[in-house]
Each structure stands twice: as C-alpha cells, then as structure tokens.
Input
Amino acid sequence: MTIRCAKIIGTGGYLPETVRTNEEISQRVDTSDSWIVERTGIKTRRIAGAEETASSMAEIAAKQAIEMAGIEAGEIDLIIIATGTPDRVYPSTACLLQQRLGIQNCVSFDIQAACSGSIFALSIADQYIKSGAADKVLIVGSEICSRLVDWTDRGTCILFGDGAGAVLLDSTNEPGILSTHIHSDGAFEDLLYCPNPQVSAKNNDERGVIKMKGNEVFKVAVNTLGRIVDETLAANGLDKSDVDWLVPHQANIRIIAATARKLKMSMDQVVLTLENQGNTSSASVLLALNEALRDQRIKRGQIILLEAFGAGFTWGSALIKY
Ligand code: ACO
Output
C-alpha cells in the first residue's frame, strides 16, 4: 500500500502597510520602548487599514501560495481558515475566500483555536490528505487582532499585530508532514479570553476586547510548549539534534527562547518575526514559515518543528520534512 503524506508546495504572507511603533503605544499607555523590547522582543507591529478584513488579507497570502505552487486555484479541494476575527459570523471567512479566489467546487470552513489555529488547521489538513479525502488543501491564518485589542490596556496592547499567512499542501508518497499533535484544556478560560458581547448571554456587560492574565499565561505556555517538544520527538523516534529549524508562534521572545533551550538549539535555528510583527495569533507561524522558505533559510530535506500556544488553552505542534 502506498503511504499518503502532506507536502508543502506553496506559502504566502501579507502584512498591512501601517506600522505601529512602541513609541506610539507609549504615548497612549504608561509603558516604554525599552520595557516592551526587554519583556517581549517586540518593536513594531502592523495595523490593518479600515477597509481590510480577514478575507481580504487571506486572499493576498493565498494567491502568493497558489502562485508559488504553480497550480490553478480551481485545483484546491479544501480551504481551512483559522481566525478569531472573521469578517462575518457567517458565512465563514473560508467561504468568503473561496469566492474571492473564484473556486466553485471545493469545501471551505473556518476553525477557531486562537493562536494555535495554524497548527490545528495543519493537523486537520494532514488528516484529510492522509485519508485520501483531499489532495490539495489551502490553509490560511488571518487575523485583525488590532480590532480586538483594548488600546488602554498596557498588558495586552503592546503584544498584538495584524497579518495573514498561507500554506498550500498537496498529497505525496514521500515524507512531508511527519506528525501533528494538538491539545486543548478549557479550564483556563479566565486567563485569556475575548468576550463576544453581542451574542453572549452571561457576559453581555463586557466589552469585546482581549483580556489576559499575562504572567500566568506565560508560565503555562513555557511548560506546555516544553512538553510538546518531547511528545513530538518521541512520536517520531527523533532526537533534539535531528530538528533543523524551530518555527514558533511569535508571542514573546522569552517563551520562544525557553523552547529553543529545551531543544538545545541556538537562536540562529529559530525563525523569528516577532520583532516587527508582534503576535499575529493564528497567522504568526505561517508568516514565519513563509519568510524562511522564501529566503531559502529552510532547505528541502530539512526537519522543521512548528509549535503554538493560545487561548483555550490550545496548543500544538507539527513536525515537517520540507
Ligand atoms: N509596560 C510597563 N509595565 C508593564 C506593562 C507594560 N506594557 N505591562 C505590564 N506591566 C507591569 C505590570 O503592571 C507589573 O507591574 P507591578 O509589578 O507593579 O504589578 C509588571 O509590569 C510585571 O507584570 P507581568 O505581567 O508579570 O509582566 P511579564 O514579564 O509577565 O510580561 C507579558 C507581561 C509580556 C504580557 C507576558 O506575561 C506574556 O508575554 N505573556 C504571554 C502572552 C501569550 O503567550 N499569550 C498566548 C497567546 S495569545 C492568544 O491566544 C490570543
């Protein structure tokens, strides 16, 4: 029997034009460039324009991935968008993207796993491809976090940015996605959440902005991501030294450095975009992957570990032979 595997054939990324610096944020809340850089590693982030939406940003990233893959959009069997900032409650942002790409015959749906959305989408795509239910799958993480941020809360407004990242996968008989590992634990709602006041019955006096107990989230994230490194390597019978690249969720340089230490990796083997993008939630891993594939830092045959942690809590990893 031939083994089916999912292989990366294209990637794309989009960042809005407007740059918001730490200095600008320091004029709104009691913080400073040096505090933000030291505690997070972030210097600037991008802010979507008034006319931009998750689907408009996704379209640009998706078209880049399609072009890189050298396929027609109509060949795509499945579109999965990970977003916490959908254009509409429904239709899904994936259906809106399908329409923007002019595809009539494919399946499109959104998933919501906060900052782990890219890994959850990769995991679902991998199952569809392995089972033979789909060949070509487009995954996009697209987020306008700036519209969910409370710009008076210095604990959160320094962190987030907007953007979209895309990956196109195809079925192959060679190794590609080696394994994915996704987890959730709903017990941590109070540490990180964003109310939906228009819909929620119980919290309808709350504003629809991100609320986070950053320090507590930080500690759980470091421990959890350490554990998922072990789980991923064990599942593949690999050693830390077998991993060539870490492509982490870009939440905080200190969280990323802790995962790199766990892998005994130098920071030169870590793809970092957070300095000028901040945390773009479900887009961040895909944006980082796009950057490192396009500038050819990551080469064919190398082993890449992708990981993310987000609200829920949700967390996950994907080990890929590129
Ligand atoms: N500028 C200056 N001081 C600040 C700022 C700021 N922007 N933010 C907080 N402080 C203060 C606090 O008020 C506190 O002051 P106090 O000691 O007088 O009470 C002090 O700095 C320390 O606060 P901590 O919260 O302990 O700071 P910490 O070092 O943990 O950094 C941060 C905060 C950057 C938010 C960090 O905790 C973090 O990155 N957390 C993880 C975020 C994350 O990974 N989220 C998951 C993904 S997001 C998603 O899924 C949507």
Observations:
- Residues 31, 35-36, 39-40, 114-115, 154-155, 158, 192, 214-215, 217-218, 221, 251-252, 255, 279, 281, 309-311 surround acetyl coenzyme *A (CB under 6 Å).
- Residues 68 and 252 are 30 Å apart (CA to CA).
